[in-house]
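Q: Protein A?
A:
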Amino acid sequence: MAKEKVLVIEDDEDILTLLEHHLGREGYTVETAEDGEKGLDLARERPSHVIVLDLMLPGMDGYQVLKALRADERTASTPVVILTARGEEADIVTGLELGADDYVTKPFSPRVLMARIRAVLRRKSRQATVADKDEPIEVFDIRIDPRRHEVRVRSRPVELTATEFQLLRFLASHPGWVYTRQQIVDAVKGTDYPVTDRAVDVQMVGLRRKLGKAGEYIETVRGVGYRFREE
């Protein structure tokens, strides 16, 4: 049975050939584009399940492509994995802020990239199967019940503030996904809520302390933000 379709937007011919080989061996259908404009057109005209996007493209760069993808309802929810030689923290944060789902820096291991693509597709599938956002979330030994506003760790009730509850619920709903502090604030409080990065860190410290040993499931991604460990 055919697997999902992957669109690779990359201007380096050697890397394109390498990715076509490895993705094809994994069973994916592969489509490629060597510049941002063509890649964006393909993404809109022939939808893919996931897009691998280089940042340093001729003409329309990867950031511009990502903005356009997220602004178009046809591609707004398509997972995007950034593949880039620009591995500075600021570049990674910018990509995530613009809506990328993951990133891999060059030089890269094809096996690692394949694993990242599989992980992104699993997350997308998991989200699609959640029919009711208020359904309880069970991950590791934590149970989060939005309807009861209740959290239990190994059946032990944990008392959380409203903000701590929303932080935990948000991260646990997207295990493995890395979020910047601003993305976390936007998801929990709304885009107009004035708060500093330091305030997010303080909330995380309190949340981890209350969760006890289970607080280790919330991981700090240095220079970027936070993620909930993937099972």
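Q: Protein B?
A:
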Amino acid sequence: MNRPSYAKFFFLSVALLISACRHPETTGRSKIILQADWYPQPEHGGFYTAVAKGYYQEESLDVTILPGSPYLSPYQQVSAGGAQMGMGSSDRILESIADGQPLIAVAATMQHDPQGIMVRKESPVYTFSDLNGRTVAVAAGSTWFRYLAKRYQLKDVREIPATMSVANFIANPNYIQQAFATSEPFFARQAGVESRVLLISEAGYVPYRVMFTTQDFLRQHPRTVARFVHASLRGWRDYLLDPWAAHAAIAKLNPALSTEWMRFTWQELRDGRFVSGEDASGTQIGQMDAARWTTLYKQLRELGVIERDFDPATGYTLEFLQAK
């Protein structure tokens, strides 16, 4: 991803985490540490809206959002007790369970992932099958690319490491890379290069972006989790209508983000219906479907990413999504 890789965010994350663990709660609110999956960005807008507008406080919660980084796994952080809640994806939740980490998703942040493959607008690559015989920059071990390779029989694709930048894409007309539809195309356009993104969801691989916790924390604090979900989804509904409060908060934490970049991401989240799903009324925000989890689990088993059988229903709960 083309995200600002500032080491200061990593060290800030560690410092805040140590501070949060050392100091007991001093208010009457339940303290929640939410571990982000990347540096502060508009893709986290609903959570920052809930903080900025006091929605967590209204639910008697004291929520701290810890920035993520390339060096930090939200799954490991939550599993180890370094945070009570985390941001992630449903495929990684299932993979974590298979690895012995008892995580559980409690609501969807996005109905489908903005992850995909970015090519030039004039590129002859229009389908994933067209990637055969080409070089693609992708993060090593990406499950979603493993799925694409198997489904489209990409036997002649050469993988090179993703650089989390669009510099090579801008310099080389034939360069193909992984990208978020909500981010990298903005930087390409800023450099005068128009692009297209082939979304992984178009290939039938449709993980949710989710908020998650551990089985133990959910069992011990169900009301706290319920309040967190309620406030977070309220924040996401508001964010899609008006991003100003979230963007003001995010800009203070991540000065590298321009107003234009954040506006682009927000518009793409709306236009692509990543958060809202196909129902523009917003009734799908946060919702998850058992059948989709089962399909995803079967896909991971077929890929060999998950090597043992278990009930995929252990990876999620719908109990906080019935009443909006």
